[in-house]
Design brief:
By secondary structure, this protein is mainly α. It is about 45% helix and about 10% strand. The protein has a three-stranded antiparallel sheet, covered by helices on one side.
Length: about 450
Amino acid sequence: MATVKFILDCRAVKKGAAAPLKVSIGHQRKTALLPLSINLTPEQWDAAAEKVVKHPNRVSYNQIIARRRVEITDIINELVSRPGGIGNMTATDLKNAIRDILSPRAAKVAKTPKENPNTVGKFFLRYKANKSLADRTAEMYDVTWRRIEAWLGEEQAAALQFSDINMTWIEDFDKFMAKTAPSPNGRRMHHANLKAVINYAIDHEVLDRNPYRRYKIKTVPTKKRNMCVEALRMIIFAQDLEPWMEKYRDFFVLSFMLRGLNTVDLCHMTKPVNGRVDWIRTKTKQPLSLKIEPEMQYLIDKYAGKELMLMFAEDRPYRNFNDKLTKALHKICAYINQNRTGDVSVPDCTMYWARHSWATIAARLDIADGTIGIGLAHSAKSVTDIYIERDPEKIDIANRRVLDYVLYGKDYRVPEPVVEAPKKKRGRPRKNATPDGDKDVA
């Protein structure tokens, strides 16, 4: 009986490189290979289980494999049931018969038109592959492309050329997006992404003009997401929280103490070394370093991970934790407001509020904008930043002042009372006199 197996054919590729996945048709002690149009690296293929692993498209690929296995097995059973069966066929004959049934030769008469490598859709993919984008940023480019597909239709979007995009096209695209995103800021990201891909195509000499040259991307001032110190203290010192509330509240507080560190960086933070944590911000790729203060250490010890600094997303994707975190913060704010005794209420906040609040409080304490920007790991804004090695001690001092102000109400701007030294008497000191003016006693 003929056999059907799936193998990764690594014979013609370098060790560790992607290789084609093929169907091995075994018959009469010989085998013949039928390609599947799937390429995988050895670590993405489980040969024993004949399954795709560790690949972004593993689910769809495994479905293709399972479907193709059933199709080939059914074809073999049908060939066996025919007069003469497959006894006189070689493995190659059997493979060719299976191939002809799966892909009839008549369908190959019409030549497939050669794909244009310079379409807008192809450059979206090329831009993402060559720009080393963060995962979240790359996803936003995918979202932009899906908006273009939703507007034009998948077939027309796939054929979209850069020469098709002009001022009228951009204005019509903006009107389409406005139906679901009335705020200009909601549409700004998609315009910025498309503009970046167009500039990338200009750099590759696919076109020589930028249709966004005369189109002004509309924006409105972003709503501030910072809370007053009193509201922040209500969150930090909230009592009688349920255990799950306390856990998510503490994560928010630790983010604030770490200068508004975002969720992805905090979840992936390695353990402190010599009382400091060092990391690269995911969004801007800027290096950061921060001194661990005693208040932070208490929370770090409370939620210590096995390998990472914290246990919140150690055994699961941080996205899953982040989704629960956002929902939890809404419920925590509502709970605190229901049980408040004063007039101050807590805004319905998200993790962004920790970052905005830290920056705003730092500014109110007269900490320089440049120091705040470095503390937030904003990208360099001038050539000067390339030459200057910033002193992390300044950031540590700024953070300590923010924590002292929020946690203990200590404002370094208010000078400490000055105790005046006693006034010295004028004139020369008397001979044989003590510093206090008394005579020596024999």
